[in-house]
Amino acid sequence: MVRLTNEQKQFWKDNGFIKLSNILTENEFKVIDKEYNRIFKLKNNPGMEAAWEGKEMKEAAKTEDYSVHSIHNLQFHSAIFSHFLHNNNLLEALEDLMGTPNILLHHTKAHDKPPGKGAPYLMHQDYHYFPFKKHSMVAAFLCLDQSDPSNGGLCVYPGSHKNGPLEDVGHKGDGIDHIYHYQDPNKYPLDKATPIVCEPGDIVVFSYLLLHGSYKNTSDRHRRMFLIQLMAAEDEPMEDTHKSPGQGWMLRGSNDNRKAVMAERFLH
Ligand SMILES: O=C(O)CCC(=O)C(=O)O
User: Fold this and answer.
1) CB of 210 closer than 8 Å to CB of 134
2) Is 107 in the pocket of ligand 1 (CB under 6 A)?
3) Residue 260: pLDDT band by 50, 70, 90 thresholds?
4) Does 126 sit in the ligand 1 pocket, CB within 6 Å?
5) Residue 106 in this model has a pLDDT that exceeds 60
6) What whole-number distance in Å separates Cα of residue 205 and Cα of residue 202?
7) Mean pLDDT in the chain?
8) Using a 6 Å cutoff on CB, does residue 229 contact ligand 1?
9) CATH fourth-level superfamily of 6-266
10) What is the pLDDT of residue 267?
11) Distance, CA of 204 to CA of 194 (rounded, Å)
């Protein structure tokens, strides 16, 4: 059982994020860690490159030689990740944080920032990628490595979720096939954010309204993460966007009005 204390719930309300260190057992973590490496090695190909493109990104990275390897929806690659999506400790904690017993999957993704050149992510709100009416959307960000500012760890502007959606800077990458959302790096620089230092197995949950980003990996270590994006069944998307396989999958509770399902064709 991982029910949150009143202090933890208050921290979440005040800050828009919380680090949980007691979700996975050592053995559960080992299994995920090993499978993550196996899949990344197996899939290793140029299509895994997912670093943001564009002028601001190059400026933030201070070089053109930066990289992030990414695989989306790992639960379609290995049952170990579908199993993890149903982790009871995680879902109990999420129920306490999201304030609903009815929790749906939005999507998952994994980022491996390689040593020495792992790209930074400018400060941004995930809201702009998939806006929902009630802002119930949260990310559960599993750290597979010890992570801190030196190897590209996560950082946040605590409490920024309270300001609601901020005006967004959208940038079409030089490759033209992606739109990246982020805040003006002069207004919200990475180096003024609060680093979240994690141990392997820690899970950081944050609101999609929280300003977050991550540093460049300048160390000789990898910085691997696996992220699950989830929403409440009582919420509804504002735009028909960011579809992914398995979206709307019930992870906890029930979805009696099926409102949070993304596409009409899934309604029946
Ligand atoms: O991989 C990272 O460090 C950042 C990921 C992130 O912030 C995002 O994808 O929204």
Assistant:
1) no
2) no
3) low
4) yes
5) yes
6) 10
7) 92
8) no
9) q2cbj1_9rhob like domain (2.60.120.620)
10) 45
11) 13
